[in-house]
Write a structure and sequence with these properties.
The chain has 261 residues and is of the alpha/beta class. The protein has a single domain, classed as 3-Layer(aba) Sandwich (Rossmann fold), CATH 3.40.50.720. The chain is 48% helix and 15% strand. It has eight helices and nine strands. A seven-stranded parallel beta sheet has the order 3-2-1-4-5-6-9, with helices on both faces. It has a two-stranded parallel sheet with strand order 7-8. It is globular.
């Protein structure tokens, strides 16, 4: 499944799911542009570590995914450094929870910009060259919330539903150009961000750690197990392979059965 001549852009990839996807693609021989926020020292450590471990080229873009001009600049940077962007993974995302009547307008705008519009801007920049080369892979990280809703997450749910529509539309437009477009919809994924929420939830609700995990975080997932970042990354890597060339326009659930109910 190696694609050593390919180059990838993975947004929101300085930690969590995005970093795992970047690692999976690098392992298969792809050059990678990583993007996201964090401490400069930590980001450089990850960037240099990927290069050293897998023998590929890795560059970093600090582009803010809420800014269309910076998204375009990131794509241009990758095209300049690598000569092409063969694989685009739109993974950047943020969350905010509030009743709709109290939802801050600026938070709505920010979530729609980062979780949905940034994917449009990156895809728009990537597709022309992919068409010219008759090969491309576009993967959008969605969520179980692309299929079902939860209270107090109006912007996030709207954005993730939108990502599915964008995925299907672009897939149809480029179906004869050797380009596939899919989205992955994980349920709760075990990440440092989720892990850090547990003590606060224990305190706020008077629950044990096990109760928080099983009765709060994993309440909707029948398997009662977290999805791992490596599982999401493995699916993303498969979608980039030739074996997946006829998988396009799909929303692949990886949610422990959440959306089966």
């Amino acid at each position: 499944m190696t694609y050593c001549s390919k180059s990838a852009v993975v947004t929101g990839s300085t930690s969590g799911i995005g970093l795992a996807i970047a690692r999976a693609l690098a392992k298969e021989g792809a050059n990678v542009l990583i993007n996201g926020f964090g401490e400069p020292h930590d980001i450089e450590k990850e960037r240099a570590g990927l290069e050293a471990e897998f023998g590929i080229k890795v560059v970093y873009s600090p582009a803010d995914m809420s800014k269309p001009d910076q998204v375009a600049g990131m794509m241009h940077q990758a095209q300049e450094v690598f000569g092409a962007v063969d694989i685009l993974v739109n993974n950047a995302g943020i969350q905010f929870v509030s009743p709709v009547e109290d939802f801050p307008v600026e938070k709505w705008d920010q979530i729609i910009a980062i979780n949905l519009s940034s994917a449009f801007h990156a895809i728009r920049a990537a597709v022309p060259d992919m068409k010219a080369r008759k090969w491309g892979r576009i993967i959008n990280t969605a969520s179980a919330h692309s299929l079902v809703a939860s209270p107090f997450k109006s912007a996030y749910v709207a954005a993730k539903h939108g990502i599915v529509g964008l995925t299907k539309t672009v897939a149809l437009e480029v179906a004869t150009d050797g380009i596939t477009v899919n989205c992955i919809s994980p349920g709760y994924v075990w990440t440092p961000l989720v892990e850090k929420q547990i003590p606060d939830t224990m305190k706020a609700r008077g629950l044990t750690k096990e109760q928080v995990i099983n009765d709060v975080l994993l309440k909707a997932q029948p398997t009662k197990q977290f999805v791992t970042v490596d599982q999401v990354a493995a699916l993303a890597a498969f979608l980039c392979s030739d074996a997946a060339s006829q998988i396009t326009g799909t929303n692949l659930s990886m949610d422990g059965g959440w959306t089966a109910e």
